[in-house]
Write a structure and sequence with these properties.
The protein has 240 residues and is an alpha/beta fold. It is built from eight helices and twelve strands. The protein binds zinc ion (ZN).
C-alpha cells in the first residue's frame, strides 16, 4: 500500500493541489492536522481532503478554529488568522473538523499532530522531547507534524538518531521505534518554500520525503485580499 502523508496544510489549497498532483495514484491519504489556520482557503482544503477520503487527526489550529482554548497560546498573527477562520468556515467544514480524533492508530502507525503524549501542544523539536515521545509510543512508528520541519527520530537504544529529511530522502523502517515528520504542505519553516510531504510504502517498509514547487503568488494575494496579517503572505516566499 502506498500512502501519502500530509501535515500542516494550513488552508493552502494551491499547495495541496500541487502535492496531490505530484504524488499521483495512492491507496490512501493520511493527514496529521492543522488543516486550517494561517491561509486563505479553509473550506477549499477541507472539501478537497474529503473528496480524496483523507483520514487523520485534529491539530491545534483546527481546535482553535472550532472555538477551543488553544487560541490563547497563539501569537498575534496566528490568533488573527484563527479568528478569521472561525468566522469564515462553513457548517460542513466545521463538522468535518469536529469529527477528527486527537490520535489514530492504523496498523503499526500512530498518527498525532504534536507529540504522542501531548497531541495538541508539544513540539518534537529537541532530542529530549524526541526521546520521551519515542518512549510513549504504543505502536512501533509515529507520524507527527506541528513543527513544519521534515525530520525523523530513530530510537537507537542509547541514543536517538536524527535524520534531516530532504527532497528524495528515503528511510527503511525496521524494528527500531521511529518518529516521522513529513514537514508542512502549506507553510514550510525549514528555509525551503516548496510544499513538503512524505510517501509511506507499506510493502517495502520505507518512507520517502518529497518537495513540490508551487506558485505562492496567488496564495499571497488571497491572504492579503482576505485581510489576514501580511506577514503570513510574506513568509510563504521564504519558507520560514
Ligand atoms: Zn501547524
Amino acid at each position: 500500500m502506498r500512502v501519502a502523508v500530509l501535515s500542516d496544510i494550513h488552508s493552502n489549497l494551491v499547495a495541496l493541489q500541487a502535492v496531490l498532483g505530484h504524488v499521483g495514484s495512492v491507496d490512501a491519504v493520511w493527514h496529521l492536522g492543522d488543516i486550517v489556520g494561517y491561509g486563505p482557503d479553509p473550506d477549499g482544503v477541507v472539501a478537497r481532503l474529503a473528496e480524496v477520503g483523507a483520514v487523520g487527526v485534529l491539530g491545534n489550529h483546527d481546535a482553535a478554529a472550532l472555538g477551543g482554548p488553544e487560541i490563547e497560546w497563539f501569537n498575534p498573527d496566528a490568533r488573527a488568522a484563527a479568528e478569521w477562520t472561525r468566522d469564515t468556515i462553513t457548517a460542513a467544514t466545521r463538522t468535518w473538523l469536529d469529527d477528527l480524533p486527537l490520535r489514530r492508530e492504523i496498523g503499526p502507525m500512530t498518527l498525532v499532530h504534536g507529540s504522542p503524549r501531548d497531541p495538541l501542544r508539544e513540539y518534537v523539536s529537541s532530542l529530549g522531547v524526541a526521546r520521551a515521545s519515542l518512549a510513549s509510543l504504543t505502536t512501533r512508528y509515529g507520524l507527527h507534524g506541528h513543527t513544519h520541519v521534515p525530520v525523523a527520530f530513530v530510537d537507537a537504544g542509547d541514543s536517538v538518531g536524527v535524520l534531516d529529511a530532504r527532497d528524495g530522502t528515503t528511510l527503511a523502517l525496521d524494528e527500531r521505534t521511529t518518529l516521522l515528520n513529513p514537514g508542512s504542505v502549506g507553510q514550510p519553516r525549514d528555509g525551503d518554500p516548496r510544499a513538503a510531504y512524505l510517501v509511506l510504502d507499506t510493502d517495502d517498509d520505507a518512507v520517502t520525503w518529497h518537495r513540490v514547487r508551487y506558485d505562492v503568488a496567488p496564495v499571497q494575494a488571497a491572504i492579503r485580499a482576505a485581510g489576514l496579517p501580511p506577514r503570513l503572505a510574506d513568509r510563504l516566499a521564504v519558507g520560514a
